[in-house]
Amino acid sequence: MRIALYEPDIPQNTGAILRLAACLGVEAHIIEPAGFPTSDRAFRRAGMDYLDQVAIIRHTSWQAFEDWRRTAGTRLLLFSTGATVSYLDHAYRPDDILALGRESAGVPEAVHRAADARLRIPMRPGLRSINVAMAAAMALGEAMRQTNGFPK
Questions:
Q1: Residue whose C-alpha is closest to residue 28's, from 53, 63, 64
Q2: Hey, what domains does the chain have and what are their CATH numbers?
Q3: In what order do the strands lie in the sheet with 85-86?
Q4: Distance (Å, whole) CA 119 – CA 79
Q5: Whole-angstrom distance, CA of residue 122 vs CA of residue 130
Q6: How high is the pLDDT of residue 115?
Q7: Best CA proximity match to 66, nearest among 21, 99, 34
Q8: Under-70 pLDDT residues of the chain
Q9: What gap in Å lies between CA 119 and CA 106, rounded to an integer?
Q10: 33: three-class secondary structure by DSSP
């Protein structure tokens, strides 16, 4: 299981997701450019003491990520407020990539088109979205539950 962050905006959310990935043994992909410095030094300065425990793969662009993903042959599952299929109704595979968009703008249409599935987290009408770090935890929890992927 992998998690991918498309051009993340908020370092605290990214830090929380990287900590989640470290604790659950999940590879984290950052698709740049981010809205903040993403060097190891910047993460350490932000107090990311779990940095040595997480595999972080940086991609210089969406196209670089897509090239890598196609070579790896993995499915891209995009979590989006505009999707119609609940994340609870999807059958996950152990090698899936769970992708989350920018906090401020989501993802562009090209990312939507590239996704093998677009999934949503059901929520009350009239509310905009769940915090991206919380969405990542919910998505990863369900995917790992279905695939028996939690660390032993």
A1: 53
A2: 2-147 (3.40.1280.10)
A3: 56-59, 27-31, 2-6, 97-100, 76-79, 117-120, 85-86
A4: 5
A5: 10
A6: 98
A7: 99
A8: 43-48
A9: 13
A10: coil
